[in-house]
Write a structure and sequence with these properties.
- With about 450 residues, this protein is of the alpha/beta class.
- The protein has a single domain (about 25-365), classed as Alkaline Phosphatase, subunit A.
- About 30% of the residues lie in helices and about 20% in strands.
- It has 13 helices and 17 strands.
- The strands form 3 sheets. Strands 1, 2, 3, 4, 5, 6, 7, 8, 11, 12 and 13 form an 11-stranded mixed β-sheet that branches. It has a 4-stranded antiparallel β-sheet with strand order 14-15-16-17, covered by helices on one side.
- Strand 5 and strand 6 form a beta hairpin.
- The longest helix has 23 residues, at about 1-25.
- The termini are far apart.
- The relative contact order is 0.17.
Length: about 450
Amino acid sequence: MKSLSSFLLLFCGVLIAVNVAAKEKDTRPNVILIMADDMGYECLSCNGGTSYATPNIDKLAKQGVRFDHCYAQPLCTPSRVKIMTGKNNFRNYEAFGYLNPKEKTFGNLFQEHGYATCVAGKWQLNGLSGKDQREGWKDSNRPHQFGFDEYCLWQLAYKVNDGTKRKKERYKYPFIEKNGSIIDETTGGYGPDVFSDFVMDFIERKKDEPFFVYYPMVLVHDPFVPTPDSKMWDDDVAHRKNNPKYFEEMMSYTDKLVGKIVQKLEELNLDENTIVLFTGDNGTDRKVVSKMGSRIVKGQKGLLTDGGTHVPFVVKWPAKGVKGKVSTELISFADFYASFADLLETKDDQDGKSFIPLLTGKKYKDRDCIVVHYDPMWGSQSKNRGRFVRNQEFKLYHDGRFYDMINDPTEKNPLNVDQLDNKSAKAYKMLDSKMKALPAWK
């Protein structure tokens, strides 16, 4: 009898412990932000693109929200600085390939709130392009400083000199830094596979706690070369050239990797309470020509035009029930930080506006306009610097050019501001007041 009583007491204790643990289980959503490199709005078939098949990303859009008006910076580092810190470039952009270590990123934000965090893919923030011009450019600890517990990155520090002049590639034979160690794939591995495998391994290991994954892909940036699914994969000559004919294969591989990550979430029963966001960092490379039905779209990366700044953006969050929605609200790259702060029920002094209500079906008041300030400080690209404010229909540049983006999306015919109809005059007055309220150009 005594042993039975002891057993019952032990059994009850176990039940209580299980119940307490269940009550204390952290139910906050996981977050995965995937950002393709050099992929404009026209590249996704769910956006009306007809050159490339993107079934996995299209499925995200169908199961969540597709945004028609998301705008990035025209070039990689300016977009990375903006999306990670939530600030317009005139506030904290200092040099190409560099983010001041004093800045706070969304990695820090999630880490402060108890999330496990990781970053994988393209870094380009240590000052590597300027090397000794920036203190700490060899510091492989910088991702940790910016709030990421773990990392697997291309273009971080490259402290090791292997005695050859071999390029530090991102695709075949990649040269990658992973949590302080060098991965030098001289046998022919594929960088995007290394990054995506790292992400999926991180998800597997952190499945019992809330996690934040930032995956700035190296795809679909040039050089345009074969993928492992290509018939030309084993042809090393093809990997030494830059041929836009491989862009379609690279688009397919990007979509494939997105599908693999989503599948991993489903296998671990994490998909319901995981927010998956997919976007692009700027417009498509200028060597690439795509189609949207009969419309020909030439890539305009590096330019302030629609083709340089209009990017895809889709979000899936099954737990909140908003499915199959197409949003026409304005989204700025500064909004990602603000949205994550909103999700974590905290506030920060940044420039964005939370889009979380658009994912959850709650009331949302669209902003009047968004701001893009662009001065890349990068060679010949700097000649394209400028500033604009815009809404869905009209766009005003710092030099006074004013465009009707519905009827003139390629910005060929600026409107005469002295001969505007009532609608365009009202828009011009609003945008002009917003432009004049911005800090003077330094």
